[in-house]
Fold this protein.
Amino acid sequence: MNSIIRSAFVGSRGLWRPALNAVRAMSASGGPTPPFTTLAISQPATHITHVELHRPEKRNAMNQAFWSEMVDCFNQIAQDPECRVVVFSGAGKLFTAGIDLMDMASGLLRPEGDDTARISWKVRQTISKYQETFSVIEKCPKPVVVAVHGACVGAGVDMITACDIRLCTQDAWFQVKEVDIGLAADVGTLQRLPKVIGSGSLVNELALTARKMYADEAKSSGLVSRVFPDKETLMAGAMEVAGEIACRSPVAVQSTKINLIFSRDHSVREGLDFAATWNMSMLQTDDLMKSAQAALEKKSLKQVLFSKL
């Protein structure tokens, strides 16, 4: 992470602290972290980076700046050896209302170009740019735990389906909103949600009717893995999960994420071949011996010092 962002991180670099203490260290009200205008970045515990969508006065709606700032943020996180896991959340009363239509309307409704071909070419470039905003989460080798409270609408669903672990509050609800505003979702939902939920019928129903899915159904369908009573317990739970990931070998964790995503998009045979090729080098790590020694000595992995990756 660059020096500007690193200087804004909070928390110590000592041993991992209890989840509730880490939650209190998160940037809940300090505003966006320069140079960002839509994201607040903090380090609530060792090796854990908290990225918070921070436009609470706009219900965390995604404006033009957001789409490029997310790419810059996660590209930096991917290269930051101090970070081993990311917690992503939204500031204020809800996770996100989706696209900020007022801010984005001019570019979406009045694209530049002299004729149909040139206008279409420009529109395709714009859509590809927006797709990268969420694909960068998937490309980042650090696991991303997303914590959803309240509403998660439209592009919010596109975003969370690119995350690795999804948690939510009991009052959370999810909505694939795009058909209600006259378009097909084009930045990830229609591609990732079928792989996340697994029920084609349910995905089709959500995408074609734009109905709301509430927390209990989200859990039973597999969209989220755990539901918490309120935001405080949600964030504590997210920090607990992140802490369990952060204390493990970064070689093992990042290799696991990369292999899981590759296997999702390829056949079993291709996934096995990829894993064999990957591990022919990654098995040659001291982390194996450190983990084995900790098991023999019945030590917690929180007591093991793994080198930066």
The chain has a mean pLDDT of 90. DSSP finds 13 helices and nine strands in the chain.
